DNA sequence: GCCGTTTTCGGCCCGACTGTTTTCAGTCG
């Protein structure tokens, strides 16, 4: 799976790059869109595109003769000639300008052609030197927006999205686990704790002799540079500029090392304090008697915690947010797990902006062992999707038709509504009431005042047909701030009206985020952990939503899509 | 560049918002 995903991802990235470069050069907008569409389709495709012959490649929606040829050329030669040609004309830094929110291909092209700007740094310098002032279409507000966008980008501080880190870790762990003499290998660090972005990736392995593991590690194809190489620790930088540390420990020290390298630093400080008070000393090598220096325990994390008078603490809780105190009181939450999730309540198909068909999405849901599955395509007020009542009803018929093939899976017909500035949604109540489930989300007017946004969300909660507030803060990691709202008021309204808050699992959203979940659960709110999947493959993101929910201390009972269908349906009736 | 119970051309995702203009270009969802 990991490997297959990467081949498709490679092609998706290349086609998207080609689309971006075409748009910068002012190429035909429809051609640009064709490449973007093909990129998304390949990225979301369920088969490994490197294994497909020409005919089956062209069966991927949006892939025709020309793009199929380019994909084949890439797998045959390792490059795409036409991409190389356009790369030679446009520096990579110009494309990187497009990562700045509010800065698209036209402005990037203008900045490059008129001022020779080809990096974010040069752009920031140029703004401070007031060199943008004479540029057509650029005013003071544009400068301000660019600087804010750059600040958002830099907030991520070189950190990597959770899914990128996860996939990289999975690949490295799989590779190293096969090395002779490797007794254990896992990822640790902030990835094990499911933080929303990852700084450095920490891989931990156990072996008697570390040399074969270190050799294999430094020889991985994705390694661009070996930063440090030792017997216990080796650090590399990947071709994408990401630092990965491998630590190899004797298997006897596994538990102590895993505990130490999982962090967080703040959690470990608390744990070591407890050790000191008990006359012990904790390090990555084990728990030792402070006086005699004799090893007490080190083989498993459970033993280490137990010897300190604590139950094992799940990694997502290890942030020094009261988990040690809760553990001491015997009040650690029994965290929701991916296995607890019985179904997804927010997904899309190619009827709107998804890339997989309804049949493929449903088949994949059945394959995952879901008990229920909601298809919730976009409602008409999102103009790009050109939705209509007729299309929705036709989809409902199609859903009914496919349902017969999966007797163990209950299909729910839903929609993702748009909450307008007044808090109203797309359809009147009588039509909404015909859906099994309605998600309602903000997709426009992100910059209303806090007061107006709060009122807007409250109004949506009070709609008797709105079951779930989708991606409640609408933030995009590294791209868009959370909306300004009095979340306490919103959470109170959700609890009162029987409206669930979504934990959107998309790695660039993770919305609600962990702190907001901790806040919201104090109001007795219910949650829904959804994928918002736009393809079969993106159904996999569920783990990130569950990890985020765990960081928010959620138990299965607080999450409506862990419930049996009957209890879920009762909740979705919302007292109607 | 893709696609076709419109089949080899002529459409294709469209409307709103923002900031810049002085009638509109660029970006976004």
UniProtKB/TrEMBL annotation:
EC identifiers of the protein: 2.7.7.7, 4.2.99.18
Catalyzed chemical reaction(s): DNA(n) + a 2'-deoxyribonucleoside 5'-triphosphate = DNA(n+1) + diphosphate; a 5'-end 2'-deoxyribose-2'-deoxyribonucleotide-DNA = (2E,4S)-4-hydroxypenten-2-al-5-phosphate + a 5'-end 5'-phospho-2'-deoxyribonucleoside-DNA + H(+); 2'-deoxyribonucleotide-(2'-deoxyribose 5'-phosphate)-2'-deoxyribonucleotide-DNA = a 3'-end 2'-deoxyribonucleotide-(2,3-dehydro-2,3-deoxyribose 5'-phosphate)-DNA + a 5'-end 5'-phospho-2'-deoxyribonucleoside-DNA + H(+)
Coiled-coil blocks: none
Presence of the UniProt keyword Metal-binding in the record: no
DNA repair in keyword set: yes
Entry-linked SMART domains: HhH1 (SM00278), POLIIIAc (SM00481), POLXc (SM00483)
Cofactor: Mg(2+)
Keywords: DNA damage, DNA repair, DNA replication, DNA synthesis, DNA-directed DNA polymerase, Methylation, Nucleotidyltransferase, Sodium, Transferase, Ubl conjugation
Domain DNA-directed DNA polymerase X: 6-319
UniProt record, GO biological process: DNA repair
Domain Helix-hairpin-helix DNA-binding motif class: 55-74, 95-114, 130-149
Residue ranges of every copy of the Polymerase/histidinol phosphatase N-terminal domain listed in the record: 343-421
Protein name: DNA polymerase beta
UniProt source species: Prauserella shujinwangii
Biological classification of the source: Bacteria, Bacillati, Actinomycetota, Actinomycetes, Pseudonocardiales
């Amino acid at each position: 799976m990991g490997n297959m995903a990467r081949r498709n991802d490679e092609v998706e990235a290349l086609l998207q790059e080609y689309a971006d470069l075409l748009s910068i050069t002012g190429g035909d907008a429809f051609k640009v869109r064709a490449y973007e569409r093909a990129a998304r389709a390949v990225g979301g495709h369920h088969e490994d595109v490197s294994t497909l012959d020409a005919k089956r490649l062209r069966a991927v929606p949006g892939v025709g003769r020309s793009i199929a040829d380019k994909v084949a050329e890439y797998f045959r030669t390792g490059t795409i000639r036409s991409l190389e040609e356009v790369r030679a004309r446009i520096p990579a830094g110009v494309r990187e300008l497009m990562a700045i929110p509010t800065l698209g291909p036209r402005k990037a092209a203008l900045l490059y052609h008129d001022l020779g700007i080809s990096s974010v740094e040069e752009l920031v310098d140029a703004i401070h030197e007031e060199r943008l002032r004479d540029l057509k279409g650029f005013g003071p507000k544009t400068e301000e927006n660019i600087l804010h966008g750059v600040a958002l980008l830099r907030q991520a501080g070189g950190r990597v999205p959770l899914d990128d880190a996860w996939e990289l870790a999975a690949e490295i762990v799989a590779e190293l686990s096969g090395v002779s003499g490797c007794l254990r290998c896992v990822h640790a660090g902030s990835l094990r704790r499911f933080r929303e972005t990852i700084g450095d990736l920490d891989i931990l392995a156990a072996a008697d002799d570390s040399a074969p593991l270190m050799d294999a590690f430094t020889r991985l194809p994705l390694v661009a540079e070996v930063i440090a190489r030792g017997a216990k620790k080796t650090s590399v930088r990947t071709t994408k500029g990401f630092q990965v540390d491998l630590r190899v420990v004797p298997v006897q020290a596994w538990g102590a090392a895993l505990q130490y390298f999982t962090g967080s630093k703040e959690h470990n400080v608390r744990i070591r304090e407890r050790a000191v008070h008990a006359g012990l000393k904790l390090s990555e090598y084990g728990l030792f008697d402070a006086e005699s220096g004799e090893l007490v325990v080190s083989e498993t994390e459970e033993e280490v915690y137990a010897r300190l008078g604590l139950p094992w603490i799940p990694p997502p809780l290890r942030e020094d947010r009261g988990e040690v105190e809760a553990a001491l009181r015997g009040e650690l939450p029994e965290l929701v797990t991916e296995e607890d999730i019985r179904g997804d309540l927010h997904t899309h198909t190619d009827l709107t902006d998804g890339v997989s068909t309804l049949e493929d999405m449903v088949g994949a849901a059945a394959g995952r062992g879901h008990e229920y599955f909601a298809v919730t395509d976009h409602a008409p007020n999102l103009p790009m999707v050109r939705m209509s009542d007729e299309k929705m009803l036709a989809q409902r018929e199609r859903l009914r038709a496919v349902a017969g093939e999966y007797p163990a899976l209950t299909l729910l017909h839903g929609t993702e509504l748009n909450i307008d500035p007044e808090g109203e949604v797309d359809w009147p109540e009588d039509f909404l009431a015909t859906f099994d489930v309605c998600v309602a989300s903000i997709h426009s007017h992100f910059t209303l005042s806090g007061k107006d946004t709060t009122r807007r969300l409250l109004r949506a909660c009070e709609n008797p047909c709105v079951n779930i507030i989708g991606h409640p803060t609408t933030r995009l990691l590294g791209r868009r701030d959370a909306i300004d709202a009095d979340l306490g008021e919103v959470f109170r309204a959700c609890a009162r009206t029987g409206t669930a808050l979504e934990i959107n699992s998309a790695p660039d959203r993770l919305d609600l985020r962990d702190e907001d979940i901790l806040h919201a659960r104090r109001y007795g709110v219910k949650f829904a952990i959804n994928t918002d999947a736009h393809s079969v493959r993106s159904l996999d993101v569920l783990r990130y939503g569950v990890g985020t929910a765990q960081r928010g201390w959620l138990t299965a009972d607080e999450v409506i899509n862990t419930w049996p269908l009957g209890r879920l349906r009762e909740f979705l009736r919302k007292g109607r």
